[in-house]
Amino acid sequence: QVQLVESGGGSVQAGGSLRLSCAASGPTSRCIERRWYRQPPGKEREFVASIANSDTIDEFGRTAYVGSVKGRFIISQDNAKNTWYLQMNSLKPEDTAVYYCSFWCGGAQYWGQGTQVTVSS
Fold it and tell me: Of the candidates 34, 18, 30, 29, which has an alpha carbon nearest to the alpha carbon of residue 100?
């Protein structure tokens, strides 16, 4: 069973930065895309960012972002540690949410437990 453990959430004032981490363990050889989602209070979970973990040269490291975070958030990965990160800069109150990491693995999607990010104005 793939397991994901997140860390790095917390409270910050608007304009500040936070870095989230997600460490994966278990049978991850078929996992091809690392993702971050978030769920703001009272709203549905939404996609935030993804990074490809494919062993195809053209695909490895390809990133995607939701429009509202482009230019502020950066997703990255460390394959040796089977860990990925979300660097969040210029945070806004509307970024307040529970953030979840996710790993897409050959038709199955695994989730972390979630970490709270609160941005005050």
Answer: 34
